Each structure stands twice: as structure tokens, then as C-alpha cells.
């Protein structure tokens, strides 16, 4: 009298089919919006084109295992309880369908430990997870309301899921009042059954059927509404994580300025960035559709956290609103977001590293920046001056009195030029260590270390820049011109190994030059020094001096170089970590051309970072990028007249034991 007859399951199957159709239509709505963007999978949406874009590692780690949600443990646990509880319940309900083909799933160990115990625990997991989110709605963290955007529609869906779980337990309790049914593992159901004991059998049987149907109706309603509410992130987030770029950090798509239409094709418009939704790629529209407005990106954005106009959350929310309103070709998008916000971005990629569903707000910002610069010839005055100086003089440092030979002053040997076929390593100087007096010490220190280690090295004749400032300020044309010139010279000189002191130079060489035909091995000086110390070519003393290390964004976050820098610092002193370090480091504020800008807001980014460094009580602040060094040196002078900020090459040189006897033991 307590069994659910087959006819009920037939109706349930029809209802579930309708719910899945509704889910499909809801998701189709998102794809229709996304399809307005620039082709991302290729000219034709084929199975091969899609599979070529799939990143199985991020699909599993971020999509299935919810890796990035765990950065906030309590919220991460709640998400995991909900997600894995739901997975177990779905598998259990699916397994029950096997009983209709003669397989009794409630027998043996599988029935006891999975169909009963595991599903019972899974139901409690869902309840606990839902209750956490329900309570948090009462007092939401600031990030959920930051930038004036809050996703609506979660609470009704959470209430629906809560009701579904509760009804499932109550229906189970009614079922277990049947004296013919025994289950030692469904402990919640047994407890409820105990409360119902003594009731009329017919009423209990009717209650079992009614509550079973309510449980199923609520569950099907939840599935049907997923694609029409913010709960769509359950599908979109998983998909988007599976389509994440295979390389961390910012990955700007190249612009082919020489592209010609293929046979039978009309000449396509050359897009110099984007000023409206339809000019963004389909992947960026997928990002905007997937975004939950959770504000995690806002919490880590150095611009947002120092009161500037930029909020990556606002960028994503604005794009999503334009898409929802069908404003795909509305050119007001770029003005709505605003020039100030677009140029506030330091390209630190913290927003990309933090996003639990693998969105890339910084890349959207840079597409807008490209449009401002290359289409509208509009950028902040200080950046424009640096950009003009780069074009006229080959470097962006306006007003410098240094010349290209100044960095060599004080060196006790003649700096060798790179010789094709003879020299093994090119020591790439770049513009910062050439034209900024403070940064010149970094070049001198590294040259001494190379010489002390007996490395075959040389430099280029004349000043050079990778073009990174131009690219990250939005001037892709200028970057391509500079890069192509460097590539031609490198090929003529048969350069195969390059050592850089600048994190931005390394990133350009390693990430963007291969797109233009530049193929060689690029090694950050921190990595090279670490190897020299490990192999004994450099011998250093460790005296216990407390040193805190600031991770350059373009090494740690963009390129995953974290351990090598710490190895070097630990070899000469005692490493004292700042609260935000490694891939979670806070930016110095120089990136994206903001070394020549970065004004506005309630504080300077470098000042915030310097305060964090001084709070560790360390004797010295170390870094491994000249731009970080310059920014932190400027801020450190407000705390102490004594020099506090050093590049790791300077620290190693100061503690070097196997320096030639002729050298002066003080830094050049």
C-alpha cells in the first residue's frame, strides 16, 4: 500500500522531460546572446573546433572540484556540500531507474551504503549548504553588493531547493512507517517515521504518495527554472571553466593587421578593440553571461580597493545588462563603462586568478582600451606622453636624463656585446634598467652575477624595448612594429637564450612574441639566479636577515613563477611573507602603463602595498622586477630614509662569497 506504481513514474518521466526542455530553452537564450560576439571557436562551430578549445584541467579542477571557491573556506564548504550532495542524489535517483529493468538496487552493499546511507548524508549536505546561503542573504558580505550590482533571483531558487530537500526527507519518513520496509541507514527518515508512528495506515500511505509527488514536482520545477535564473551558473560555470585559456593570466588575442579575405569572402572589418558588445569575442560574452556578480574580483582588484573608478564586477555586470537588453550594437557601452575605469586597470590579472568560473574581466577592459587608443586616439595625458616618447625615442621614460651607457658605470669589467655563434645568453636590458637611475643598479648587479658565475653572456648594442608598455596601454599597432623589429634582429644574431630582469619583458617575449614568429627561450633573472645558486656557480652566505618578498604580477600570477624567487630570497636571508603573496599577491600599481598614470582614488596602490610590506617587520623588501622596485622605492621613502627596497640580484650580490677579489664589496 506504500509503493509508488509504475504509472506515477511514467508521469514523472514526462514531467522531467518537460523540465529538461525548459532548461534547454533557457540555456539556448544565453547561446543566442553569446552568438552575437566575434567568432571564437572558429569560422564553423564544429566538434573539432570546440574540442580544440577545451581545457580539461580547469574543467575538472575549477568546474567539478570547485577549486577556486575554497579560497574562502566557509563559502567553499557550503558550495561543495550543495554540489556534491546534488551529484549523489542525482546518481541515486538515476540508479533507482534500474529497478524497472529487473535490477534491485536496494539490495546488497550498494543498496545499503549508497542508495540509503550516502543519499541520506547527501540530503543533509544540501540542507546545510542551502541554510548557509539563506542566512548569508540576511547579512551579505560587501562584495555581493559592491559597485551597486546584486544578482537577484537566488533566494526563490534556494527556497525551492530547500523545500525539495525537506519534502524528500518527510516523504521518506512516511514511507518508512510501512512495517514491511526496513532501512537501518536512512536515519533521518527513521526519526521522522518514529514521530509518525501510530497513524492510520491509509493516511500514511496517502501522505507518502502526496509528499512524494510534491518532492518530485518541486525538484522538476527547480530543474525547469535553472536556465531562466542565476542558477544557470550551475551549467554555464562548468562550461566556462572547461573553456578557460590554457595559460594563466591575461591572454590578448593578436590583431592581424595584414589579414586579407579568403576566396569568396567579403573583406571583414578590422576591429581595433571593441566599443560595443558585438565587437567582443563569444568567449567574453560567455564570461559576462556566466558572471554571478559575486564580487570576488572586486575584492582583489587594486584599482577598486584604492577607490578608483574601475571595478571588474561592474564591467561584467554592465556587459551582461547590455546583452539582456539586446543592445549588442549599442556604441554607448564604452562610454557607460568610462575611459577613467578602462585606464585604471593595472593588468595585474588578479580578477582572472580569483574568478571561480574562469572569467577574464581584464581582457575585456583591454579590448575597450584598444578601441580608445587605436580607434579614438584617446588616452590619459601621462600615458599619451609615454606612448609618444616610445614612438620617437624607443622608450617610454619621458624627461629622463640618462643615456644608454649610464648603467655600465662602476662595473669593474667591460660589458660584452652579444656575438652570433659565440655568446650563449643575451642579457636583455629593456628600458627601465637603462633609463631609470634607481633601476640601473639592478642591471649592474645582474651583470656582476653573470660574470662571477662564468656565464657566456652579452648585451645588444643600442637601446631596446619589448613594446609591452604600448601593448598594455592599448597601442597594439606600436607593439607589433617594435616586436617585429626585435624579432628580425634576434634572428639575424641567432639568439636562442634570453635573460630578462623585467617581468613585463619576460611575459612579452614568452607569451606574445611567438604569435609574431619570435621563438627562443626566455628566462627571468630570478629563475636563472636560483639555478646558478643550486649548481654552485654562485655561492652566497645566509645571515638570517629578515626579508619580505613582493611578487611581480607578471611573474607569479601571469606565469606561475613563485618558488624560484623565494628560493633566492631564502638563500640569503629569512623570508617573511606578506599576507597577500604568491599568485594572490597585491599589485604594485605599475602595470598596464599605470607607472605613467595611476592617479586618482583614495590611495596609491604602491603605498598600500608598501604599508603591507613594512607591517611584516622585515629588514628589507625584495622584488624581481624593476617596475615593482621603482614603485615600492617611491612609497618606502615615506616610511624610512634608509634604503629598504632591493632587487633579488642586488641582495645576492651583497651576499656573494665567490666574487672576484678585484671587485669592490659595495653595490655599484
From TrEMBL:
Identify the stretch annotated as signal peptide in this record. none
Superkingdom of origin organism: Bacteria
Q: Which organism is it from?
A: Sterolibacterium denitrificans
Q: Which GO terms describe its molecular function?
A: 4 iron, 4 sulfur cluster binding; metal ion binding; oxidoreductase activity
Keyword terms of this UniProt record: 4Fe-4S, Iron, Iron-sulfur, Membrane, Metal-binding, Oxidoreductase, Transmembrane, Transmembrane helix
What's this protein's name? Electron transfer flavoprotein-associated cytochrome b and CCG domain pair iron-sulfur cluster-binding oxidoreductase
What InterPro entries would the database entry show?
4Fe4S_Fe-S-bd, 4Fe4S_Fe_S_CS, Cys_rich_dom, HdrC_iron-sulfur_subunit, Helical_ferredxn, NarG-like_sf
Residue stretches making up the 4Fe-4S ferredoxin-type domain: 282-313
GO CC entries? plasma membrane
Q: Does the keyword 4Fe-4S apply?
A: yes
Question: Where do the TM regions start and end?
Answer: 6-27, 77-101, 121-139, 210-227
What's a Pfam family this protein contains? Fer4_10
